[in-house]
Amino acid sequence: MSNPKETRLPAFLALNHRGKTPVFVDILPPSPMFESDSNPVSPTTINVNESLAILQYLEDYHGPERPLLPPVSQRASRALVLSRIQETENLHHAYDALEDAHFEAANSGEMLDGRDRAQLIHAIHSELNYWEVYAGKSTFIGGDQFGLADCAFFPLLAYMVHRGFNWRRPRLNLDGDSCGGKENITDGPMDVDAWPNLKAYFHRVWNRDGENGCAQKAQPEGWRRRGKADVWNGSRGKARNVET
After folding, report:
1. N or C: which end of the chain has fewer CB within 10 A?
2. C-beta separation of 50 from 24 below 8 A
3. Dist CA 101 CA 94 (whole Å)
4. What is the 3-state secondary structure (H, E, C) of 202-242?
5. What share of the chain has pLDDT > 70, as a percent?
6. Range of the domain at 214
7. Quick check: 104 and 242 in contact, CB under 8 A?
8. Model confidence pLDDT, tens digit, residues 139-181
9. Is the pTM of this model over 0.85?
10. Number of domains in the chain
């Protein structure tokens, strides 16, 4: 990572003054009907911030061969998908709280307090319980066809797996004395899948169309292995700025 961070440089702040990714930059060519040799017209640049807004924008203006959002005429199906998309923010916020706390402690040369980590993980597990129900109702997270809800939800789940999440529910000591480190998180039985529907969903999307599928092709290089930092169990890996 460059110093200063690329997202804090003036060129990026001009795109998103919050200094955060993702940002989608759409450059529209000038219309020939308004352009002439004496009156050149510059391309129009549109910046779209935040992942959910980008997904909707791409669907509306760069429609794929097969639409990922049910048409307006299918009111109930469309409402379900839109609801699932928005609900991903709940998991996003719950997980971000754990990761931010983990790296904030690591960057200060300490380990996140074990009881605090357990409470943050408990909040994520509570949120995953909702998604376990959704994953048991249909083939994909918003219906029986892969769609925009999966584009919103699956990257979160895949990132959590990369950061050390597994499908066993550990026993969390939420009320005991704080010992620091990971002493307040005890792994449950190795053969128990706490979220079997979500696990099946994860592998269904990951293996969809194999190496040519969107899930595997979208993974950053090197992400077939877990990350060095395990925010679930407390291994520091390489500390990074909590704002990234």
Report:
1. N
2. no
3. 11
4. HHHHHCCCHHHCHHHHHCCCCCCCCCCCECCCCECCCCCCC
5. 80
6. 77-218
7. yes
8. 999 999 999 999 999 999 999 998 889 898 877 766 644 344 4
9. no
10. 2
